[in-house]
Structure formats: structure tokens, C-alpha cells
Amino acid sequence: MIMLYQLKWKLSIFVYIRNNYQTLINMLFKIIRFIRYPIYMFLLCGLIVVITSCSSKSKESGPPALTISQEQVSSWVRNFNPLIPGGTSRWPTVAGIYEPLFIFNSIKGEYIPWLATGYEWRDGNFVLDINIRENVLWSDGTPFSAQDVAFTFQIKKEYSGLDTRGIWKYIKSVEELNDHIVRFIFSRIYVPGLDAISGQPIIPKTIWENIEDPVKFTNPHPVGTGPFTEIIRFDHQVWELGANPFYWQKDKPAVKRLKFPAFPTNEQATIALINGEIDWGGNFIPAIDRVYVSKDPEHHHYWFPRTGGTIFFYTNTEKAPFNEVNVRKAVSLAINRDLIIKVAMYDYTIPAHPTALADGLASWRTKLATEKGDWVAHDIERANRILDEAGYSRDEDGFRRLADGNAMSFEISIVSGWSDWIRAAQVISKNLETVGIKARVKTNDFAAWFSRVQKGEFDMTIAWTEKGPTPVPLYRGLLSSEYLKPVGEIAEANWHRFSIPEADSLCRAFERTSNESKIRSIVTRLEELFVEYAPAIPLFAEPSWGQYNSKRFTNFPNENNPYGQLSPNYPPENLLVMVNVIPR
Amino acid sequence: MATRFNDSVLVRWVKGILGNRKALTGSLLVILFVAIALIGPYFTYDPTAFLGTPISPPSFDHWFGTTGQGQDVLAQTISGARQTLLIGFCTGFFVILIGALIGGISGYYGGRVDDILSMLINVFLVMPGLPLMVILASWLPPGPLTLIGVLVLTGWAWNARVIRSQMMSYRGRDFVSAAIVSGERNIRIILIEIMPRMLSLLASSFIGASIYAIGAQVGLEFLGLGDVSAITWGTNLYWASNDLALLTGSWWTFVPTGLSIALVSFGLTLVNFGIDEVTNPRLISERKWRKHLPKSRLNNGITPVVRNND
Amino acid sequence: MTNSIKYLLRRLGFYTIAAWAALTLNFFIPRLMPGDPASIIFARFRGKLKPEAMDALREVFGLTDGPLIEQYLTYLKHLLQGELGISIAYFPQPVGSIISTALLWTIFLAGLSLVISFAIGTLLGTIIAWKRGGKLDSFLPPALAFFGAFPYFWLAMVFLFVFGFGLGWFPIRHAYGDMVTPGFNLAFIMDALYHAFLPALTMILVSIGGWMLSMRNTMITTLGADYISFAYAKGLSSRKIMVKYAARNAILPNFTGFGMALGFILSGALLTEIIFSYPGQGYLLLEAVRAQDFPLMQGLFMTITLAVLGANWLVDIAILFLDPRTRR
Question: Per-residue pLDDT for C56 more than 70?
């Protein structure tokens, strides 16, 4: 009975539709037209949902990868040639895929034997013998020997474009005495040459002797002795490096995979850090406590030890009044280093030590020099007094005048991309006004700035200093005439154009000796010369930038465990971290 | 506001703008910012001084908060207006000058001169602006003159072409032939007969060029290619981005400058709309009609043309 | 027809001259800049490279010292052979391979945005011109103009941080996910679209106002023509008039603009790519300029110039087909 009823109902509907389908269709279209905008919106949203859900969010498989942010590029270029100057081959080619003979640990201030086990100077420092480690294999299984070491240095002679440390300027020959000793014969005595030799990444002879042009060779499938040598994959946006199956340190590295996403800007890298996507980074991050640590205080850490060099404020000593020692010291007294550090460096560092020796070289500081270096401080009164006594009087608008009557008005040249130093320069500019010197900050791009600075065509600037395992490179760059060139010619260092003959002889003596106490007395004397003559003005110690995320990996170096440099920016020290980090 | 037949061009113009709601709003916006730029800096803190705690939100002391270095954002926004607006309007002026010169001569004289000059215009038109700007700005010493030079070099061609085609259409008109026949010198014809009629075109070109100049300038400075130690809207954004403004949540270092730029550009655009409506004969007629006819009747979209008192 | 062929050939001739002028400029400008790439790389390390590296760097990059004219002629010859040289910033990668991948991504992103922006803008402009005086007309042009008034990168950054970083709805960098392998499959294409969404959205939002306004203006002018009134008087429906008669004629000047914009997509996406870390040409150019990488700069400039000229020429051809008046 009910079924019949339903059937009749359906039939009547059917009849109704057939009779009036035209009207009904019109009504249908009208309704669709009426609500077409919401329909469009709905379809659009649906499309978006489809697109977002279809994007692969696949899980990573395999051993956990240590994600690193060291280089900032927009897309990766496959280049693993360890011989060309840095920045062109992928980090960690120079130290990670390949390894050096010794590693200088700047935190502890000592050399760590790596592919070499020891060295010995002979024949009055004309000969250097290096002992090569035994039982080391290349990542293709072939044995490593002194032949590879000798070959590495010989190839730099053959292709002088690869000699980035200028080793062949003082080496006469390199040869292997046997499978485990390499002999370097010097053309002139140059003990600091050990530093350059020890840091050279070693390449396999059997492979590289067949390469036609090692300068342009991109080495897409590298064979090295380092902890990570296997390229797992290489795409434009990300590449991965796997562990070396034949690595010479037993059970190391504990990490089996390294991952490198491409971050073109600091901002992008910081975002990734905050999101916890990066495990180990070497980026400069403003207000890091607020930006990074606060997001996950348990796992987000950083360590900025002051093991870099010291950043200096250079005045051109060929220009009046900076040719006078007193004026330079007065300028130094006018500078408020604390404010610079607060404003430009986010309080990440401390003012420079009077001897300009940063923490890594603290053991070389002497009490006498420190006391005499009292001009590395902030004392406006004293600065004004010194300038008054020197005879530079002020005029009506408060600025001092030079001997020839011109106003003291100068330019501080800074590279337009280095915003932290621009800020520092702005602070200095204001500081100098208080002592009556007008200094305007002027920015240029790299090329223009560097060219001017090298040619000595500048008034003032902020720049780095030479670094090394001892303080000598620092003082040599500041005091000796080794790099001195007249104004207008390009000088590689000593841009402020200052030299003392005594410094020259001290540096020469340093090159010839490997005697500890002799070296120490040379350095002490150099320190005293520095604080006496104030060739340039130390500002602050340069921190090294290192961050890590301990959520997936542990045993990174930090203040409590300073076994080495955390920052990946100082090859070959990053090797220490790479072999010691452990996955959780 | 009725305009009478013998009102001078300028008076007619001003009345037109005042009567048009869009142009009025736009002009007020622009005048407001220009006034701020001129007088404002005398009333604020020194924008370069390192005053307060870095990255502090807007407060009584600092109405717009402080930057990553402890500088007052309000002071920076106000001081930044000066250089940005100055460079923007200067560029606009020079673009019009060069555009009118080259476009006008090219359109008026025709023939060989036109061929050469329009080839020049087309070559510049076709050269990619932004890359050229980036390359030039990074090569030349940073500063306002460099910016103006680079912007003018990459931007003059567009207006030149527009002016040229307008000049060509006027060239064929009767009054020009009459003037030539009566022995007037060409220069006089261009300057006194034709140019005044192109005033609206020149004005809207000036505004368009200024908008472009402000935007491009801010873009270049944001990339760090301007004079980074100067205080302009572009460098404000550069420093804010350098200090990771949005990442640290310090929106106040970023938003005021961006809004100011948008408001100024928007104001100029509105003025342009207004000029367009005032001078385009078809739109004029529409306003007259709209007063008389009920709205629904106009939905057929046809544009009647009404004789104008021209 | 021979008239049109003559016209096209004349345009081609013009484009060749324009290309030559641009390429010559492109050759001289980098060489007039002070400094050299070796110094740049050295300075980039802020002291980590020793001074002795300078000589080695100079030798590696093979910076020749021949007379300028000779270098210029070699440069032209290499260009014609398609040899773009070896990059300095990405040494020793050849310039061609660096540019080619970047080129594809820029074309994808900027091309997509341009087409969508043009299509929607033109459509809106038509509708607004038709319904002049209505609610849409008084609201949409000022609103879109206001969006377009923001500095482009500012809007991009805000979107990035609000939708990408803050809400996490969209990816914040790159053209595709790290886990996806590039290939011509659906998953990859979907992923690419997902990553392109935010950058494309910002580009579209900023430029759509411009297209809409110009379409509106040309429509208004077109609608004043006699034949429109005639068609209306004859009784054709409004929609038909709007689409088949008015829009079809009004779109022609816009189309020329579209053609020019098409050529400029290679250069215009610079700021987008920087902010969204999109691996395209724009960012490559900035890096090349910063590193004073002459070969890369020249290569990029050349592709951009050729693209612009090529697009213009294609538009000339297209207009020849679309607009019978030019065939005379």
C-alpha cells in the first residue's frame, strides 16, 4: 500500500518535470546566476585546498641528517674542488671532505695533529719534516701516503693560481722521503710557513694527476680522507653529504648524514633556525636571545667566543693630523666602545683589550703593555685636553682646525653591505663631534671601498686585522713595512700606511726562529711598540658566530664544553665538531 | 562649480580639481605629507640619536616605538619623508622635462628627426629598467644625485612616447596650420600654442613619474643600493629588515614607513584619477548626465559625448 | 600582405639595433666599475683570506688586460656563438647552465602572475566600465590602487610573515619542497604551485589595479564610438556588445602593454625572488652585481634584453593578426 503511494508520488513528480522543464531550467539557471559569486569563491577555495593537500609532505627516511646553515646562496652549484680559493667550492669541501695536516684549535690555542702526527725543524729551520699518519684510507679504499701530500704541494707550484697562501714564495721543494715523511726545503727561513702548510687540504695523487685543468675542475665526485665524502644527492635547493665508510677515526663520525638547504638571505636562515629546521649554523642573528633562544630555551643555544681578531678603526697616517701619535690616541679616547657594542653588535662582544689581543691570544698579553695602553678607553675630557695641548683649537662652531687652517672634516668609509659596521661608524661619528672633529659616514660598495682603502685614498675606516696562531701577523700588519706601498698604489695590507723599522727587524727575527722564549720576547716587544705608537685604534673583539639546536643532536662545543670552535665559519676547525657531534 | 568660458586654464583647472572628490582627497593627502616633511623634523627627536632601549614598542616617550638600535621611529618616519619626497618630485620634474623636450621635438618636426629620436625613445623603452638601475646604482657613489640620475635615465622614455603621440595629434590640427601660415616661429608654436593644451597630460605624467620614482627609489634603497647612512623611507625599511623586524615581532619599525609610502602614492594616484575625470571629455559628460538621469538608466554603459566649452 | 611583412621586417631591424645598443651598454658598464672580482671575493671574507690569496685569485679568474676594443669584439663574437663564459661568483660553473634553471623558475612564477593578473584585471576593467557609476566602480579602483601603492616588497614581506611564518599556511621559501624530486609529475607540479602561491599572489595583487584601470579607460573611449550606439539601437544584448564589440577593440592597446610586460617578467621579479627566496633570475642578478661577476651579469642582461625584444616582436605579430587595421 505504501509502495503504491510512493510510486504515485514519484510518477507525479516525473509528469510535472516533463511538463514544465523549460520553466524549471530557467529557474535553475537563475538560481545559479544568483549564487554564482559564492560558487566561484567555493571553487577557488576548493582549488587551494587541493593544491595545498597535494603538496608532498613526505617523511624523511634513513639516518637523521644534521642540517647545517653556513653558506648563503640562492641555489647550489656542484663544486667540490678544495684547491680553489674559498667560497667557490661547497662548505665543507676544504675541511670535511678533505682534511689538513694539522688543525689549529683557536679555543685552546694549540695545534692538533690530524693527517700528520708531528713535525721537526732541521738545518737551522731551512728544512721541515712532517710525519704523516699511518693507516689512513681514501674514501675509495686506496691507501693514503706521503706521496699524496707531496703531490698536493707540487700541484700548487705547477698552477700558481692554486697557491692561495703563497707557499712557493718561500719553499724551494717538497718531496716524500718515504711513505710517511714529507720534507719541505725552504728557499729562505720562514717559520710561520708551518701555519700555511699545516692548513692545506690534501688531495689524492692517483686521481688528480690525471686532471687536465685542476683550476677549472669542479670535482663532482670527490674522493677525500674526511669524515663525510659521499654525495647522497645534489639538487639546486638542497644537497646531502653522507659519511665516509673508510674514515680513519674509529666509530666516527657518529652522524651519518649532513643536509644543506639553500638559504639566500640571513633572514631566511634565521626563520629556519627559529622553526627548528637547522641543527648547526654560523649566522649573525640580531637580538638572538629574543629571536632564537626564547622560542625553545631548552634546545636553542648559541656561543659567541671572542676568538676572531680585533676590529680596528683605521686613520690614514699619511694625512694630517693623523700622522701625530697624540691625535690618534685622542681619537681613541673619544670613542665610546660600549655604545658601539650595544648599538651595532647587540652586546655580543666586549671592547678591545689595550694590546688588541683577543681572547684566543690572551696568554700573550703582558702587564706592562696593558698599562701603557690606557688610550684604549673612553675619556672625552682627556681627549679634548690632548687635542688642545697639541695646538688644535676650536673655532666658532665648535670644530677644530688643522695647522693649515682647514676645518677638521673627514669621511669614515664603510662598505654599504656591512650594516653592523655602518652602525658602529655612526656612533663614532657622533663621538668625534664631542671632541671637535667632524666625521661623516660615507658608504660605498665592496669594490669601490676596497680599492680606495688599499690605495690609501681614505680618511678613516673600519676594518679587520690579520690573524694567526701567534700575535705576530696582527702586529706585522699594523707596524711593519712589509706590505707598505705609497698612496695611490694598491697595498694588500697596512692600508693605514704606518711602519717602524724596529718592527721590521722583529718580524724578520720571528720568521727565523722556532724557539719558544725567543718568540715570546719578540711578541712582548711588538706589543710595547703597538701601545706606544698607536698605529690604528682597536674597537672591539670580533666574535665568532655559532648556533646549535640540541633537540636531535648533542655534544656541540659551548662555554661549558669548549673543546673547539662552535662556529662552522673557520675551517678546518669545523672538523672537530663534525667528528664529535652525536645523534640522540 | 560652474566654469565660465573665459576662465584661464589654470583657474578652470583648480576649480575642476576642487570640485572632484577624488582629486581633492588626493591633493590633501599629498599636501599633508609635504607639510610634514617640511616642518615635521623641527618637532621631533633627532632621528640619528641612539636614545632609548632598542626594539621597544610604541609608548608615551616614543609614539612609534624605537628601532633595533634605539632610535625613535616617529622621528625617522618624519625625517625620511623629506629626502624621499624631494627625490621623487625632482625625478618627476626631470622626467617631464626631458620627455617633453625629446617627445615634443620628435612629434612636432616629424621626418628624419622623428625617426632618430623615436628610435632613441624606443631603445630606452625596451631596456630592462630594474636590472639597469641595480647595476648603475651599485656602480655610482651612493647619494641623492645618483638616485635621481638613475631613475630619470630608466624612466624618461615612457612619458616621452606619450607626449610625442599627443604632440603628433595636435600637430595636425587647424590652429597649428594657421599659426604656421601666419608666420609664427616653431618654438613659439610649441611653447605657447600647444604646450598649454597638453597641461593635463603633463600634469598626470608628472604625477605618474613621481609615483614611479618614489617606488623605485624605495626599492633600491631597500636593497641597500642607496646611501645607507642617510635617513629616508627606503633606508628605514632597509634597517628594519636588517634587524629582522618582522621576525622579532617589532612591526612598528616597519609599518609606519610602509603606510606613509602607500598613502603618498595613493594620494598622487587619486589626484591623477581626478585630473583624468576633469579633462577626459567623455567622463565630463558623464558627470553632467549623472546629475540629471536616475542611476539605473546608465547601466547600459554607453558613453555619450557632450560638447564642452573648449 | 607584403605590407605587413615589410612592417615586421622593419620592426625586426629596429629590435636588432636596440639589442646591439643594450648589449654594448651591458659590456661597458661593468668594466667601468671600480675594483675587480678578485678584490670582491677577498673583501667578502672580511679578513679570513690571507693577502697572498689576491694574486692567486686574479690568476684563477683570468682577468685579461687586452685593449677594450679587442675585448669588446671578442665579447660580441662569443655572444653570437652562444658562449657566455664562466661565472666568477659560482666559479667554475659556466654561465649558461647557471642561468638556464633560474630562467625557468622566473618564467614560471612571473609568467603565471602576469597572465592571471592581466586576465582578471582586464575582465574587471570591462565589467567596471560597463557598470560605470555602480558600487563596484566607486569601490574597486581606489581599493586596488591603494594596494598597488604599497612598495611591492613591503606587501610581500607582510604576506610572507603573516601567512607563511605566522599562520604557516604556505611555504616560506624555495620553488619546491626539499623532499620532492623535480620531474614532470603531478606531485611536483602541485608542489611547485603551492610554493608559488604566495609570491604570485603578491605580484598579482599589486599589478592588477594597473591592468584594470587601463582597460577601463580604453573601454570608456571605445564605448563612445558610434558603432556601439548603433549596435545597441539595433537591439543586440548588452553582454554581446560588451564582449564582442567593445572589449575586443579596447583590449588592443592593453595587449601591447601586456607584450611589453611579458618581456619584462625576467627582470621584474627581482624583489619577489629575494623576499621569498625563489631561485630565479632576479636574485641571481643581484648576486652577480654584488660579486662583480661580469660574465654572469652580461649573460643575465642579455637574456633579459632578448626576452623583451622577442616578446615585443611576438606582440607585433599577434597584433597584426588581431587588428585588421594594421594590415593595411
Answer: no
